[in-house]
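PROTOCOL LOG
Step 1. Enter all chains and additional molecules of the complex.
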Amino acid sequence: MGNPASPDPKRPGLDSGLRRLVEGLSIGLLAALTAICVLEVTLRNLAGASLGWGDEMAGYLLVWLTFIGATLAQLDSGHIGADLVSRFLSPAGRRRLERVSQGILLALQLFLLIGGVQLVSIALRDRATSLPISMGVLYAAVPLSALLLAITHLAALLRPASRDRAGSST
Amino acid sequence: MTFVLLSGIVALVLLRVPIGFALVAASALVIVLDDPRSSAVVPLRLFHGADSFPLVAVPLFILAGALMNRFGISARLVDFASSLVGFVRGGLAMTTTLASMFFSEISGSAVADAAALGSVLVPAMTKRGYPKAFAAAVLSASASIAIIIPPSVPMILYGSITETSITRLFLAGVVPGVLTGFTIMVTSSILARRGGFAEREPFALPLVWTTFRRALAPLSLPLIILGGIFSGLFTPTEAAALAVVAALAIGLASESRALSGLRPVFLDAARQTGSVMILVAASAVVGWYLTVQQVPQILADSVTATVQGTTASILLLNAALLVAGMFLHSTAAIVLLVPIFMPLASQIGIDPVQFGLIVSVNLAIGQQTPPVASVLIISCSIADSPMDEVFRVNMYFIAAMLVVLLLVSFVPSVSLWLPNLVLGS
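Step 2. Run joint prediction.
Step 3. Record the structure below.
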C-alpha cells in the first residue's frame, strides 16, 4: 500500500480548498460504493432480488474513487514509488529532483486533461448499459482528476524553493 | 518503441515520479509517437483498466482493515494469541506470527498488519528483553504472510489481471500461508533460544477463555469472510462489503461514539485505494501496448527456446520475481510482471492458480528485502531499529520462507490440493 504522509494543515488558500473538495468526494464515493455493495448482497441473499444496475454502478464508482483517491494520495505524498536515487543526493539536489518530478507530472496531467476532455466530448451521447447516465459524464473522472492534479503540481512549482518540503516521499 | 517504453518507465521512476504515473507517462509517449491523433486512447484505457467488478473488493477490504485498526481489534487478537502460545520459549515472538495470521484473514494487506500489530507487540517484546532488531524482524516476516493468507488484496489483483477465480486463489493460499507461519514460528523460537532472550509465561486456561471471549467477535470475521466465499454463498466482493459492515458493528458494540471518528478511516482507505488502483489502471495502458507488440509471447518463446527443462524455467521465473520484488512494491510487481510472465508460466505447464501463489510468496519475501521493502521499513520504524541490523536477523526468516517458496514452486499440490478438494479440479 501507499505510505501516506501527514497532510499539512497549514497550507493556505487554493490548496486547502482543493483538499476539502477531494476529501469530500473521496469519502462520498467510498461510502456510496460500500452502501451499494451491502444493499446488493442483502437483497440477493434475503429477497433473492437484485438492483439490476448495482454491479455496473459499483464499477463506475470504483473508477471515480481510483482517480479521486489517486489525487488525494498525491496531495499527501502517499503514492507507491521507489526512492532509489534521491537518498544519495544533497538536500539541494533532492529539491531540484523534486521540481523535475513535479514538472513531468504537470505535463502528464495536462496531456490527460486534454485527452480526457476529448474523450468526454466524443462519448457525451453514449449511454451506460443499465444506468441513465451519459458515458461522457462517467469518463469525466479522468479530466477532473487531471485538472485537480495539474493545479497541485503547478502550485508546487510556483511555490518558492524555501517552502519546498525536502524529502516528501512517494 | 518497446525499448523506449521500458526505459522511459525506469527513468521516470528514478526521477521519483510515482510508479503509476510513470507507467501512464511512458505509455502515453509511445502511443502518441505511434499516432499523434490518439491522445484520447490513454484516458480511455485508464478508465477501463479500473472498471472491474471483482476489483471493487479492493477498497472494501482496505476499508474493513482500516476500521479494524481504528477499533483496536489487533490488541484483542494479540491477547488471545499470547494466551495460547505464551508458555512456549520465545512465545511472544510466536504470538506476533499467530496474531498476524488471524489479522491477515481480515485485512489483506501486509503493511496494514505491520502497522496494526507492531504498535502493540513491538513495545511488549522489547519490554520483555527481546532485542529491537529481532522484534522488528519477527514483525516484518509475520506481517508478510498477509499477502499469502486469504483474503489478499494482491491476489484479487492477480485474479483480475489473469482472469483466474479469486475464490480458487484464496483457497490455494491457505496451506502455503499456514506453512509460512509455521516456519516463521519455528525460526523465531530457535533464534530466541539461541539468543538467550526466550521467556515463558505460565499457561492459564482461564486466561485463554477470557481473551477468547474478547476476541470472539474479530475471530468470527474470517468465518464470515472466508466461510461465505468458500461455500459459494458470497462473491469475494460481497464478502468484502459484509466485512465492512461487521467491522462497523464490532466498533459500535465496543464504543458508543464509534461513528464520530470515521472520517480519517475513510480518508485513509480512499488514499490507499487511489495509490493501488491507479497502478492497476496504468498497467492496463502498458499491458495493452505490450500485448499489441506481442512482447509477453516473444519473451516466453525466447526463454523456452534458451532455457532447457521445466525446473530451470521455474527457477528462472522465481529469480526474476525475487529480484523484481526487491525493487518494486507488491502491487506494482503484480500489475507489471504478471501479464509479461503469464504466457511463460503457461508454456512450462504451471497452473494459473499455482503461479498466483508462486508470485505471492516471492512478493512476501520481496517486501522485506531492501532497497524497496515496504513491510521491513514500517517494522524498523515502529521498533526504532536500523534497517541493516533488522535485515541481518530477517535473513533467517527469509531463508525459512524460501523453503516454502520451493515447496509451492515444485509441489503443485501444496497450493492446488485445497481448491481442488473444495471446488473440484
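Step 4. Note key features.
Residues 225 and 242 of chain B are 8 Å apart (CA to CA).
Chain B has a mean pLDDT of 85.
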